[in-house]
Structures are given as C-alpha cells and as structure tokens.
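Case study 2.
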Amino acid sequence: MSRNIARKTLLLVPLWLISMTVASAQTVTLRLGNITDPKHSETKAQEYFADLVGKKTNGAVSVKIFSSSQLGDAPSQLEAVRLGAQDMYGGGTGNFGKYVKDWNITSVGFVFRDQSHFMKVLDSDAYKQMEKDLLEKSGFRFVLRNGARPGKPVIATKPIMGPDDFKGLKVRIPPWEGYVKTFEAMGAKTVSLPWGETYLALKQGVADVASATVSGFYGQSLHEVAPYLTLVDFFNDSFTIVISERKWAQLKPEQQKALLDAGEEAGRYYTKIAVEDQEKIIEQMIAKGAVVIRTSPEPFIKKMGPVIETMESQGVWTTKGLFQTIQAIR
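Prediction:
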C-alpha cells in the first residue's frame, strides 16, 4: 500500500510542474519604460494602464513599468522599441520627428492654440496620417494616444517676463528641432541634454532655462535651482504609449483589444489627473519659494510668427501646408 501511494505522489509532482510551466508560458510580460519619476502624473497613468491591462486580460498580459530613465533616455528607449529590444515606451511625441519629420511640428512653440485645439487636431485626418506613417516607417503603434498634457511653461534661474528676457540665456532642450527653432526665435541659445541631467545643468550654469510640464519640474526639484516659473504654455502635445509592432503581432486579438481599451481609459484618466496635479504642484512650489510669473503669451507668439513661416521651406516637416492645416482646425 505504501509503495502505491509513493508512486502516485511521484506521478503528481511532474504534472504539477508541467501545469505551472504552461501557466507561466501563457502570461505575456510587457516592459514599459519612461523618463518620469514615480510621482509624475504620466507614471501614475502608466500604472493605471498596467492595472487595467491585467484586469482586462485576466492576468494573461502583465505590464512592468520602468520609470525614471531606468532603461535609458527617451531617444534610446524608442530606438530599443523600434528594434524590438523593449516592448513599450510612454512619453511625449517630440522624439517621433527623428523617424517621420512631420512629427516635428508637435514640438514647435504655439502651433497649438491650447489644449482644446490640440485635442481637435488629434482627431483630424492629418494627425491620423502622421500616426499611420509612424507605424509604417518605424513600427511604433499607439496603444494610448489621447492623454492631453497641460501646456509646457518654462522655469528659469532669472525672471522671464517676455521674449526679450531670453536673450543670452541657455535653454535645456530635448533633441527636437521644434524646440531649437522656438527658443532661437526668442534670442536664446539651446543646450540638448537628457532630462535627468537638467537639475545639475541649471545648478552649474550649463543651462538657465528649462521647458516641460509643471509636474516634471517638481519631480526633478528644479525650483530649488531655478525658482522662476513663467506660466505661458509654449508647447501643447500628448502623453502617449507606443508598442513595438513586432510585440503587437505576437499578441492575441483579444489581448490587442484589451491594450487599446486600457489605453483609451488611461488617456482620459491622465488628462484629468494632469490638470489636478498641476494646480496642486504650483501651490507646493510657491510654498517652497518658487516665484510664479503670469504674463500674456501674445509677445511670444508674435516672435514665433516669422519663424514658423520659414520652417516648412527649411524641411522641418515634409507635408506641404501642414501648419496651415493644423491652424484651420476649429
């Protein structure tokens, strides 16, 4: 009797191991990287997205988030996604200009009148064509596209009241041509640096100004070394999540649908909390010594006018009349 029991036990162990192996093989883990800190509204939205994906797939798909540039700076991560070495990246749209030049227009100052205008552009044929071109040429597929970022102001070591105050200053920028043209129009010089190096650059005088979301400023404690916050929305764009087309093709149709549905919900969630977070953060920055400057955007927009007119002829973007098409959207 005892020998028979022993044999049954031995048979059960391999079956148990096999069932565990099958369950593990059925779970798809997606690596999602970003450059924002864990408390940033974009990281919160990615966590929300990951939670939704897990629920909608009953655990068959798991999203693991790597925040604060753990996987490298934004260009490096996107290149890793393109090559299939990384599954997903969450961030803005400015880096897409490297792959499809029309995307450069999303990083040009004051192209979008405000967040409402940007959201209307998001649903336009011109924007959807840009997304199609990006997928075909680089393999980036959007699973979240509707996260409307609050406008990006500037934070500086000196007060910025108008465009003339930029003269002689060095602005930290990502490697985006639109940012270069925007701040050169104000008379500033630009310094391209990874976002994680911005604090030290401002502290050491390598840069005098930075532009990003207010949440981004606070997450990097930039107000400690650059206390002047000028609340003019130089840039409006979206928070997005893209997935490698290679990885996308490996997912089941129902898993693909779950990611898109989760992305739509997480985009709406981000749009809501980003505004709420910004209001709270501004008050927190003031309490910690930041000086908030509220001034009209009109003088800055006027400076950009002549520059934007020449950008298309210079090949900053390739589709003729793209700027006029965007401006005509109401």
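The radius of gyration is 23 Å.
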